[in-house]
Design goal:
Elements lengths: L1 H19 L3 H5 L1 H20 L3 H8 L4 H42 L12 E2 L2 H16 L1 H4 L5 E2 L1 E2 L2 E2 L2 E14 L4 E10 L3 E3 L5 H13 L12 E14 L10 E12 L7 E12 L12 H47 L5 H7 L2 H24 L6 H23 L3 H39 L9 H12 L4 H6 L6 H43 L5 H7 L9 H17 L1
Length: 565
């Protein structure tokens, strides 16, 4: 009985001790509770950072400003790009049409789309064509259909310049296979032809100028390298008036070259057009295009710049927040597990989408500033502006995939691309070495016999087309059969390249992407965390609408106010 009473008393004492001391574990382990609460807050902070805009709204009532801003930005930037694209298209079309006009005006018997090169084969033809260029230049006002005009400096029209290049000295005797040549190139004295000149005496001077070396050197053709005719014409692009833009003034520097570098009996004739776009000095526009319309376009570009600056600031803040959370989580891993955070987990905190949007905002801001200067005729760099605006718009549209990635059915594409990227880069490096080897081999062996292998650039384009199954039959067919050995080599070269890249390398590349896709799909179906960071976040069971995230927000605000005091 005494033993039983003692046991009952001991149980009663245990019960009393257990009920009357409610803070026994907390008093003994206050630091553990505090650390556990900090870890839970860290989990919620990191989990909140990776939430989508809708979840963030339910968690803390935070409105999706970045999402709304990106949607607005996509719309207005696309409108800006379309407007500038139409304007740039008019500029490029005006240049191309003027180039074609100059070829028909100054190249005798020129035909569009000729397969054979525009070339001359007799001395009389060379003199005749040079005479034709000078005569057409003199009669420009009577033959042109556009507003072309001569360049004027100090109230005087700039003349047409004729210059020839030739070897300093040389004697060539193919009959007995002997020659002596001085490879130094001299430039002859420039001959000028004014706009209002007497044509017959000037033509006589031209013949004298081209043949003045004949009296001293028996074979002029062996020394002549090229003859260049240079002159400047001006024009105004009036079609922009109908599209609420001020017209630009164009300077066309025309260079007509009679090329005899090969000394093969064929002198190739080429017309180059160097274009300078300038602001017109004096202008007055009435009617459809008013100055107010131009100012409205400038204000629209300023609005885009402001929105891009706001987007840049918001995305930069998000990147900084991610880096701060990465540092905080790294300290947690070092303190509790005595190990460094892996690079894959570190990169999870650095959102590539935010960086992409930051780059696109920067490019769009620079492009919009250039566009404003083009609209106000301070600059005329249409090509540079189009590169900035086009690349910026491309990145903006690619950034939309980030928000589609919040849906699981769309997210698998993004995860596959990200997971397969390192393997794809390594695969491309190995395949690129084989590709370059075929490029160099095809250029050196097949270049003299096939037009698609004349330069390394065209070789690369041709082989890339073959990989995609394009232009395959003409590549085989157009190989010249002048050399049977090279022709047989071309068959082996093309067959091995097509077989290797289409049937092996391209199939391996597709298999690499497919395997990564299957791996990602299995991970999504299993639902198990695959990284240390995911396992750490999986222990947080708080839902976005649980209210815990709002409590963390209020506590952080209270602590900030307390620290400030």
């Amino acid at each position: 009985m005494s033993i039983i009473l003692d046991m009952e008393e001991s149980d009663d004492l245990y019960d009393v001790r257990e009920t009357n001391d409610p803070s026994s574990w907390e008093d003994q382990h206050p630091q553990c509770l505090q650390d556990g609460a900090k870890v839970q807050r860290l989990r919620r902070k990191i989990k909140y950072y990776f939430m989508n805009p809708c979840e963030k709204y339910h968690a803390r009532g935070r409105k999706p400003w970045k999402l709304i801003l990106q949607i607005i930005k996509i719309a207005i930037i696309t409108i800006q790009l379309v407007l500038f694209g139409l304007s740039n298209q008019m500029v490029v079309t005006f240049k191309d049409e003027n180039l074609m006009t100059f070829k028909h005006l100054f190249l005798k018997d020129y035909v569009d789309g000729g397969i054979a090169p525009y070339a001359l084969y007799r001395q009389a033809d060379v003199y005749d064509h040079i005479e034709y260029v000078i005569q057409q230049y003199r009669l420009l006002h009577n033959i042109t259909l556009s507003n072309h005009e001569y360049e004027e400096k100090h109230s005087v029209y700039t003349p047409l310049l004729l210059c020839q290049e030739f070897y300093r000295n040389g004697t060539i005797y193919p009959s007995n296979e002997t020659f002596e040549i001085d490879a130094h190139v001299d430039t002859g004295t420039e001959t000028t032809f004014d706009v209002f000149f007497d044509f017959a005496p000037s033509l006589l001077l031209l013949y004298v100028h081209l043949n003045q070396l004949s009296a001293h050197v028996p074979a002029l053709s062996s020394r002549l390298i090229s003859v260049k005719i240079t002159f400047v014409l001006k024009a105004i692009n009036l079609q922009t008036v109908r599209h609420r833009e001020l017209p630009d003034c164009y300077d066309f520097t025309l260079i007509i070259t009679f090329n005899n570098q090969a000394h093969s009996g064929q002198i190739k004739v080429d017309l180059e057009n160097e274009v300078d776009i300038n602001e017109c000095r004096q202008w007055k526009v009435t009617g459809a295009c008013k100055l107010d319309d131009i100012y409205l376009t400038v204000l629209f570009d300023c609005l885009i710049i402001i929105i891009c600056i706001i987007s840049f600031a918001l995305c930069t803040r998000s990147v900084i927040t991610g880096i701060q959370l990465q540092l905080e989580y790294s300290r947690y891993c070092r303190k509790h597990f005595s190990k460094e955070l892996s690079w894959s987990d570190k990169l999870e905190f650095v959102s590539g989408w935010y960086i992409l949007i930051i780059v696109s905002d920067t490019l769009t801001i620079i492009g919009s500033l250039l566009k404003i200067e083009i609209q106000t005729k301070v600059l005329t760099s249409y090509d540079v502006c189009s590169i900035f605006l086009g690349t910026g718009t491309m990145f903006v549209w690619i950034g939309v995939i980030r928000y589609m990635g919040y849906f699981k059915k769309y997210n698998i594409l993004i995860l596959t691309l990200r997971a397969a990227f390192p393997n794809v880069i390594r695969f491309i490096c190995c395949a690129g070495i084989i590709y370059l080897s075929y490029c160099f081999c095809g250029w050196i062996v097949l270049g003299p016999y096939h037009e698609k292998f004349r330069t390394l650039n065209t070789v690369s384009e041709c082989l890339f087309s073959l990989i995609n199954g394009d232009d395959m039959f003409p590549t085989f067919k157009n190989m010249q059969q002048k050399n049977s050995l090279v022709w047989m080599f071309s068959r082996v070269y093309l067959y091995t390249f097509v077989s290797l890249f289409i049937y092996m390398i391209l199939s391996l590349f597709i298999t690499l992407i497919t395997d990564t896709y299957d791996t990602i799909k299995q991970e999504q179906q299993s639902g198990s965390p695959t990284s240390e960071l995911q396992r750490f976040l999986s222990e947080c069971k708080d839902l976005p609408n649980s209210g815990a995230y709002r409590l963390d927000k209020n506590n952080s605000c209270f602590l900030n106010c307390f620290n400030n005091r």
